[in-house]
């Protein structure tokens, strides 16, 4: 098994706190870290550099306003896939083929994730609620 390399930061002294501050600044604890390639793509699509949150807000707003046309537009811009109203739907035959060709480990993982989500959601349901009539 490959050995895990992990940086240790000792917070007992000021140097450790400075190292942690620098790390947090580099990682962007608000989810605002954008790679140079990502920044380039954002500028190409929106004409300006945007934070990830601004990109999501803009895309969601456009999709809310323009629906599928915006989905198709952003799919082409971000994913370089040219979908149309005619070819966006996956046929039953395509689904069956994809399922047949999927690695068993992937299917097992997807099923486990599905079960975990289901169990979590069921856990949110109030079971002890009583309503008197």
What report would you give on this structure?
The protein has 133 residues and is mostly helical. It contains six helices and no strands. Among the domains are: 30-87, no CATH class; 89-119. Helices cover 62% and strands 0% of the residues. The chain is extended, with a radius of gyration of 23 Å.
Q: How far apart are the termini?
A: 62 Å
Number of strands: 0
For the sheet with most strands, the description reads: none
Tell me the overall shape: extended
Gyration radius over CA: 23 Å
Figure out the total of helices.
6
Helices, strands, pairings?
Blueprint: H1 14-27, H2 36-46, H3 52-66, H4 68-79, H5 92-101, H6 104-124
Summarize the structure.
With 133 residues, the protein is mostly helical. Helix content is 62%, strand content 0%. Among the domains are: 30-87, no CATH class; 89-119.
What are its keywords?
extended; 6 helices; mainly alpha; single chain
């Amino acid at each position: 098994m490959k050995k895990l390399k992990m940086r240790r930061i000792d917070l007992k002294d000021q140097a450790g706190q400075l190292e942690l501050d620098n790390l947090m600044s580099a990682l962007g604890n608000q989810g605002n870290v954008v790679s140079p390639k990502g920044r380039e793509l954002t500028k190409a699509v929106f004409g300006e550099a945007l934070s990830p949150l601004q990109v999501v807000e803009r895309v969601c707003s456009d999709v809310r306003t323009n629906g599928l046309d915006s989905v198709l537009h952003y799919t082409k811009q971000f994913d370089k896939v040219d979908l149309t109203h005619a070819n966006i739907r996956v046929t039953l035959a395509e689904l069956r083929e994809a399922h047949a060709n999927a690695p068993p480990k992937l299917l097992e993982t997807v099923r486990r994730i599905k079960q975990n989500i289901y169990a979590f959601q069921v856990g949110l349901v109030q079971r002890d609620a009583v309503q008197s009539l």
